[in-house]
Design a protein that fits this description.
270 residues, mainly alpha, Rhomboid-like fold, 2 domains, two-stranded antiparallel sheet
Length: 270
């Protein structure tokens, strides 16, 4: 009788453990069949495949990328149906973020009511996510996105003149700071892999230049996110194999500390 299904007669035995296995518990093996328990144990013994940057090789869609896109989409709908109150609650502006520091991050999940704003950012996130998330892994990709989103807000803060400047009271919303962070991180990743980064650099230059010719684009956030993304991407890409985790997470923690210190110094100076 099958040990997993005592009411079923088994006519074959597992080639590995010798226990009877009913048709539901049989799995084809190189020689004969194995039971599902032995197959599961064998899979645990096989080392997980890793990318060049130590991330576990996964099949399927980039889960983190699609989750971030989903959060931005839901947030945008809430912005529309609440007549702006959702935006006011989470948007970043230098004058208020000192007392409500979570706005440095939450503003990256907000967009203007013009659908082109969110469509462009989500398309760029989708493209870059499909490239970077499988290489870096889910945890490091999410860390990269979140830290460069914060860096974008810090860039806006640092380049705002102060309480006498209109930019001090102007809200800066959108995921473009994080998107430019992904652009920046892609450059050292491409170079480390021996691939040309010329097209990526050109894409960054063109999109960055648009901030100076189109109104209501926070080029400061683009700059902050891009610089942070390049630095963190270089740490991920060029970390020694034996110290990959230490260097990657150490660089992430260091970047967060630097961003906090820069924001604190700016607020202290004004």
């Amino acid at each position: 009788m099958c040990p997993r299904h005592p009411d079923r007669v088994s006519y074959v035995r597992c080639q590995r453990c010798g226990r009877p296995a009913c048709p539901e518990c049989q799995r084809p093996a190189a020689v004969g069949i194995q039971c599902v328990d032995c197959v599961r144990q064998g899979q645990k013994a096989v080392p997980a495949q890793r990318t060049a940057y130590g991330a576990r090789v996964r099949s399927g869609r980039p889960v983190v990328t699609f989750t971030l896109i989903g959060i931005c989409a839901v947030s945008w709908i809430l912005q529309l149906v609440t007549n702006g109150s959702w935006t006011q609650r989470w948007a970043f502006a230098p004058f208020i973020a000192h007392d409500e520091p979570w706005r440095f991050l939450t503003t990256a999940f907000l967009h203007s009511t013009n659908p082109l704003h969110i469509l462009f950012n989500m398309y760029a996130l989708w493209v870059m996510g499909q490239f970077l998330e499988p290489l870096l892994g889910r945890a490091r990709f999410l860390t990269l996105f979140l830290l460069t989103a914060v860096a974008g807000s810090v860039g806006v803060l640092l380049l705002a003149g102060g309480p006498h400047d209109r930019a001090w009271y102007t809200a800066a919303i959108g995921a473009s700071g994080a998107v430019f962070g992904l652009f920046g991180a892609a450059i050292p990743v491409l170079r480390q892999r021996g691939l040309q980064a010329t097209q990526m650099v050109g894409l960054i230059v063109v999109n960055f230049a648009l901030g100076f010719f189109i109104a209501n684009i926070a080029w400061q956030a683009h700059l902050g996110g891009m610089v942070a993304g390049f630095a963190l991407g270089a740490a991920f890409a060029y970390a020694p194999r034996e110290r990959r985790a230490l260097v990657g997470w150490g660089a992430s923690a260091l970047l967060l500390v630097v961003l906090v210190v820069l924001a604190a110094v700016k607020y202290g100076a004004v």
